[in-house]
Design a protein that fits this description.
The chain is α/β, with parallel strands linked by helices and 577 residues long. The protein is 39% helix and 18% strand.
Length: 577
């Protein structure tokens, strides 16, 4: 349609960002190119819109108050009494206006529209300053430049299955009392809005019938644009914001194809099972980008995938005594998997379960992908079982274990970072440049370069990861991916690991000092990456390492690589004539 769009997510919590929040509290921490640790919704925006956002696209109460207090300390308010109104509300509006002008789509141009999502619920105390700021903002930018979409649930109550509009009526009343009138109602429901519901909402919520948009549950998320467009959402928005009429109808054929393919894969009976062994599996949002990356890979290679979640500590031998049934079930699931994935995480809980999962994958030649912590787990497992370092460990886990023994902290509680004495068994160490006293925003964060590295067997066994990146992103000497970690493979151990085991470090940082990609030779696919490739995976641009896992798990990796190379070679020959 030609409109450039950017996004801002407002989270009314007092944290500066999501970086120090537990995944159980708020889902995953999504990392941006500039190293910003943000709400997972920014990941949804980037995946859907194809944009590259910054840390400033995520506003929190903590960020706003911090900026206002810093100005007060430097005398910017000239001795005035600093108050929520106007100082906090002005800071919110200024932030929105500034960030809305930052290009995010690679064109270098300002966006035409900025979508602002204010999290929480109407009436929450913590969101009141933001609601007041938006009330003022509509007059600052003018009515023709401000459109309020109110998202509300239309629940079904009772055995009759009647949809109820009272919750929406009440929330709209609360919103109007705060000085904001909804221009459009976006009604979430389990089924399409029943006959008469739109008219009822229009009557009691002070909006036109055409301004009531229904968003019911669908089989996959890619169908959402397909149910919004026929309801006239684009026309309503362009009219309210006085935007130039669309030059042509939106071409949704790509979305239709994607949604159809997703449905076909969902309905396929014979699926490839991939087991994800993690620490936060009780909350699916804790690994949202991981789940999306697996889905993107399955769509890319047209392979139906079934994901099974395994709580890591259930695999540990000590858990067998506490709960034999959970231990048995976890191992049955692991053995049933055609592929195993160990994602990122922090703390000591479940680590031994991850290590035995990595050992099972390597010794039974089950395709394995380790992300961030998963790479470190693979290195520890190889060192313990192939290098003869039976006590091989990470400084992170040993630190917590020693504190637990001394009674300073329980083994699964995150403890403060501090230097501990060197130990010859530490194959993973604390990075020297990372703060040992502050945790927020102090890790190695953001998009960084990883350079492919030569190793002695490279001619006989070329790097699988490099081949995947070459075939999907095009040949290159390096890749750029997002990072979030404070521990690394011990540089002093690299030579002994490569000389004494089949593990090879095939990717390093731009200084050649930090290990970024590992592969285990003599396996079909046993890979670890220190970065987080899931954060740059997109519906139409799957992550190569996730593609590799899905292909290997479905038994198609070698064939796929050969076919891609043949196709590229033939294309090159055609280009010569």
């Amino acid at each position: 349609m030609g409109f450039g769009v950017t996004n801002i997510k407002i989270d009314p919590y007092l944290n500066i960002d999501a970086g120090t929040m537990s995944p159980f509290e708020h889902g995953e921490v999504y990392v941006l190119d500039d190293g910003g640790e943000a709400d997972l919704d920014l990941g949804n925006y980037e995946r859907f819109m194809g944009t590259t956002l910054t840390r400033d696209n995520n506003i929190t109460t903590g960020k706003i108050y911090n900026s206002v207090i810093e100005k007060e300390r430097t005398g910017d308010y000239l001795g005035k009494t600093v108050q929520v109104v106007p100082h906090i509300t002005d800071a919110i509006q200024n932030w929105v206006e500034r960030v809305a002008r930052v290009p995010v789509d690679g064109s270098g141009k300002e966006a035409d529209v900025c979508i602002i999502e204010l999290g929480g619920t109407v009436g929450d105390i913590e969101s009141m300053p933001f609601i007041e700021a938006m009330r003022q903002f509509q007059f600052r930018v003018g009515k023709d430049n401000f459109c309020l979409l109110h998202v509300s649930l239309v629940p079904v109550v009772g055995a009759v299955g009647e949809q109820k509009t009272k919750p929406t009526q009440q929330s709209v009343r609360e919103l109007r009392a705060a000085g904001l009138d909804a221009d459009l109602l976006v009604c979430r429901s389990s089924h399409p809005l029943q006959e008469g519901i739109r008219e009822k909402l229009s009557l009691f919520c002070h909006v036109a019938t055409s301004a009531v948009v229904g968003v019911h549950d669908v089989s996959n998320i890619y169908k959402v644009p397909l149910i919004l467009h026929p309801q006239g959402l684009v026309d309503a928005l362009t009219k309210k914001l006085s935007l130039a009429p669309p030059r042509a109808e939106p071409d949704l054929r790509g979305w239709e194809k994607l949604a159809t393919r997703c449905d076909v894969l969902i309905q396929t009976e014979n699926k490839t099972r991939i087991c994800i062994v993690g620490k936060y599996t009780e909350l699916s949002d804790a690994y949202l980008s991981i789940s999306k990356a697996v889905l993107h890979a399955s769509l890319y290679v047209k392979a139906a995938v079934e994901v099974k979640w395994i709580e890591a500590h259930h695999l540990e031998e000590k858990h067998k005594q506490d709960n034999p049934q959970e231990h048995t079930t976890a191992w049955e699931l692991l053995r049933s998997g055609a592929g195993i994935l160990v994602p990122g995480g922090f703390g000591n809980r479940g680590i031994e379960g991850m290590i035995v999962a990595a050992n099972y994958a390597r010794t039974h030649d089950v395709p394995y992908l380790g992300v961030c912590l998963g790479l470190q787990i693979l290195v520890i497992e190889v060192c313990r079982n192939l290098l003869g370092l039976k006590d091989a460990n990470s400084q992170e886990f040993r630190n917590e274990q020693s504190k637990a023994v001394k009674g300073q902290a329980p083994p699964d509680k995150k403890v403060e970072q501090e230097a501990i004495s060197a130990d010859p068994n530490d194959v993973v160490i604390f990075m020297p440049e990372i703060s040992k006293t502050h945790m927020g925003g102090t890790m190695r964060l953001g998009k960084r370069k990883t350079i492919f590295r030569e190793y002695k067997e490279v001619k006989e066994r070329p790097s699988i990861v490099r081949q995947l990146y070459d075939e999907i992103h095009g040949p290159a000497e390096f890749v750029e991916e997002r990072h979030r970690h404070r521990y690394e493979v011990n540089p002093k151990m690299i030579q002994s690991i490569e000389e004494g085991t089949p593990l090879r470090f095939v990717g390093v940082d731009d200084k050649g000092e930090r290990m970024e990609i590992v592969e285990v030779l003599q396996t079909q696919y046993c890979v670890g990456v220190q970065f987080h490739p899931e954060f740059l995976s997109r519906p139409l641009k799957a992550s190569p390492v996730f593609v590799g896992l899905v292909l290997a798990a479905s038994g198609r990796l070698d064939e796929w690589i050969v076919n891609r190379k043949t196709k590229r070679l033939n294309q090159s020959k055609e280009d010569l004539f």
